[in-house]
């Protein structure tokens, strides 16, 4: 039971916070288990400290609710509150991580935020692939800008795909191992005739390309 409590309080919240952040960002956890545990513990301690400070105006819940030292009568009296606190401690960090990642993504599209916060490393992507597509997405969603950007993709077969990357397009980023691209509006160039053929108009269709088939990508606007 003690081991389960230590895991639930010191590892699980921080790990879920990092996973939530990673879902919204192209962000890769360290590949060594010890580093992952260390990050999770540090994040969990920070999360527990903020929760404890937020609850202090209501009284110390650890003592008043019978958690430490354990008091069965107090725990029974505050059973619903303790259960809600446990659920919040365990799963609240995941939601916070997702929201934090989305906020960083929004800031990434703001030139002033990038200029002020560049030293923090918040906007750094783990690979050149991630960085390129993050920049493309930021340009496509920038206020007052064009909703799409033109992309030219050269394939290993010698073929070329030209299209537009916008809100309906996708590019797999870290931590996904296999990278793919989906362009909502695209033209393929026939190898024999050189004729451009419409593969998608932005409402239906499109073109899916695996990164292993790509030799180079040109962002033309």
List the helices and strands and how they pair.
Elements: H1 2-10, H2 12-24, H3 33-55, H4 61-64, H5 72-77, H6 79-108, H7 111-117, H8 128-141, E1 149-155, E2 160-165, E3 170-171, E4 180-183, E5 185-189, E6 196-201, E7 207-210, E8 214-219
Antiparallel strand pairs: 1-2, 1-8, 2-5, 3-4, 4-7, 5-6
Helix pairs in contact: 2-3, 2-6
Which descriptors would you attach to this protein?
SH3 type barrels; 5-stranded antiparallel β-sheet; single chain; alpha+beta; 221 residues; 8 helices; elongated
Show unreliable segments.
none
Number of strands: 8
Order of neighbouring strands in the sheet with most strands = 6-5-2-1-8
Please provide the ordered H/E string of secondary-structure elements.
HHHHHHHHEEEEEEEE
Distance separating the two termini = 58 Å
Mean pLDDT: 78
Computed structural class? alpha+beta
Spatial extent as radius of gyration: 24 Å
Supply the number of helical segments: 8
Strand content: 15-25%
The major β-sheet equals:
5 strands, antiparallel
Described by the principal axes of the CA atoms, the overall outline is: elongated
Counted up, domains total 2
Share of helix among residues? Answer: 40-55%
